Amino acid sequence: MNSKLKYLTTEDYKVLMEKAQVATYQQREVIVQEGRLSQAIYLVRKGMVRVERAASGRDVAIAFLEPGEVFGEMSFLEGIPTSAAVIAQEEVEVCVLNEHNLYSLLTSVPGLSDRFYQSLAHNLSHRLRQTTALASHLMRRVQIAPKYDVQRTGQPGQDTIPPELISETELFKENLQTIEQEIRSKDISEADAQEQINKICNMLISSLREQIICEPNIQNAIGTYLFRETFPFFMLSSFFDRAFRKPTNHASDSYITELLCQNEPEGDGHLGIYLDRWIRGLPTCLALKNRGGIITATVKQLGERWTPEHPMPVTSLASGKASEILDLYFQSSPPNACVTCVDFNHQDLSTAAGIAHKWGFRDRLTFIQDNIFLLAEGYSHIDIAPQQMIYSVSMANYLSDRELIGILDWIYDRLLPNGTVILGNFNAANPDRVLLEHLLEWHSIYRSAEDLEKLFSRSKFRSLPVTIQADEYGVELYVVCTKAWQDE
Question: Which of 29, 91, 268, 302 could form a disulfide with 272 if both were Cys (CB 3.0 to 4.6 A apart)?
Answer without folding.
Answer: 268
